[in-house]
Amino acid sequence: MRKVRRGISDGGGNREEAKMEEDGVNLNWSLPVPSVQELVRQQRPDVVPPRYLRDDMVLADHRRESSQGLPCIDLGKLMDPPSRSTELHNLHSACHQWGLFRLVNHGVSDEGLRMMQENVQGFFELPYHEKQKSAQRPGSLEGYGHAFVTSHDQKLGWNDMIFLKCLPNHERNLDLWPQNPPEFRIALEKYSEDMRKLAVAVVNYIGMASGIHEGELDLLMKSFGEGKFEIRMNYYPACPEPERVIGLEPHADISGITLLTECADMPGLQVLSNDDCWVTVPPVHGSIIVNLGQIMEIYSNGTYKAPDHRAVVNKEKERLSIATFCYPSPSLPVGPSPQVLAATGLPPLYQTLSHSEYMQRFFNRKLDDAVPFIDTLKM
Ligand SMILES: O=C(O)CCC(=O)C(=O)O
Ligand SMILES: [Fe+2]
Question: For residue 247, which atom of ligand 1 is closest to its CA?
Answer without folding.
Answer: 1
